[in-house]
Automatic annotation (TrEMBL):
This is PB1-like domain-containing protein. The lineage of its organism: Eukaryota, Viridiplantae, Streptophyta, Embryophyta, Tracheophyta. It comes from Tanacetum coccineum. InterPro entries: PB1-like_dom_pln. Residues 29-134 form the PB1-like domain.
């Protein structure tokens, strides 16, 4: 029989009970979940008008897309602030550690996407991962093309 997954969802700014737990259990991590906001335009992307919840004591060894859905659903049921969960009219992105929102966002949709995020968290890597939930998909290729073409017209080369 599988044991239930245990984690703690809290509003940003409320006290955390992590202490030095992550030092002793390096496979645990937290999510800083940004929701109900939107991204500003490229090239200086920011997350605007959102709310934040933090989810502590997640286990990297068994964290899945279904877990992310269940976390968002629990926040929605408790607060009514994560919209369109049942209709799947949302997009999730994680911010790669040490990257800004312009170049460090990667979409979370498939189980393969979740496998990609595993390489960034737990086991001596970052213990805090920022995830953004938005209603509109980011079209990176179009934004990169626009940035590249406008930069080339100004004589700037993007590498």
């Amino acid at each position: 029989m599988d044991l239930p997954k245990l984690y703690c969802i809290r509003e940003s700014g409320t006290p955390s009970y992590i202490g030095n737990t992550y030092d002793e259990f390096p496979y645990l991590f937290s999510i800083v979940l940004h929701h109900e906001g939107r991204f500003s335009g490229f090239p200086i992307r920011k997350y605007l008008h959102g709310k934040i919840h933090e989810v502590d004591f997640l286990n990297i060894d068994d964290f899945t897309r279904e877990d992310m859905y269940n976390i968002m659903k629990k926040i929605s049921e408790a607060t009514g602030v994560v919209e369109n969960i049942e209709s799947n009219e949302y997009f999730c992105y994680f911010q790669k550690p040490n990257c800004d929102l312009n170049v460090g966002l990667q979409q979370l949709w498939t189980e393969e996407d979740y496998m990609d995020l595993y390489m960034y968290i737990g086991h001596g890597k970052t213990q805090f991962l920022h995830i953004y939930v938005v209603k509109e998909e980011i079209n990176e290729e179009c934004e990169a093309c626009r940035a590249s073409s406008s930069a080339e017209s100004e004589g700037i080369v993007i590498i």
